[in-house]
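Dear colleague,

Following up on yesterday's call, I've attached the two folding results inline so they're easy to grep. Please treat them as preliminary; we haven't cross-checked anything against experimental data yet. The first protein's sequence and structure tokens come first.
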Amino acid sequence: MDSGILPEYLLGEGQKNIQPSYSQLREIIIKHTNDELFEKKRYKWTGTTSLGSYLISAISSYYD
């Protein structure tokens, strides 16, 4: 019967893969001030949103 829970050995692999990317994202966030993170249109490539909003959206989608 499928309980919807990953076997422990697969969960361990997933955690190994998540840790490096989490650390990299955290480093990016720490290097910015709150103004740099949440000022809209500060960075051209984020369009009309702020870097912080972009990262929140990207990170939650990535880990989902």
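Below is the second protein, in the same order (sequence, then structure):
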Amino acid sequence: MRTLTLDIPEAVLTGVKIPRTRLKSDLKRELALQLYREQMISFANAHRMADMSKIEFHYLLGERQIPRQYDVEDCEKDMENLARWKAAQ
């Protein structure tokens, strides 16, 4: 797995209103939310980046009033997959 390290100047970090004990996890979550909001990453990658379960990330999107990236095409694919799954039962 590849990772990326960001250097954030200490002067910037001192102004961040996040307790030091939560700094890394909160910044990862905020980055994941923003990238998802801007449609730069998928839901799956966003919840992984945020180190959250799918359900937890769905709730967080709701709390922040960030719309899900789900359109008619996604719905049609889900319906096709559901029909195939039912047929296989």
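For the second protein, one point worth flagging: Helices lie at 10-13, 23-37, 43-49, 54-63, 72-88.

Best wishes,
A.L.
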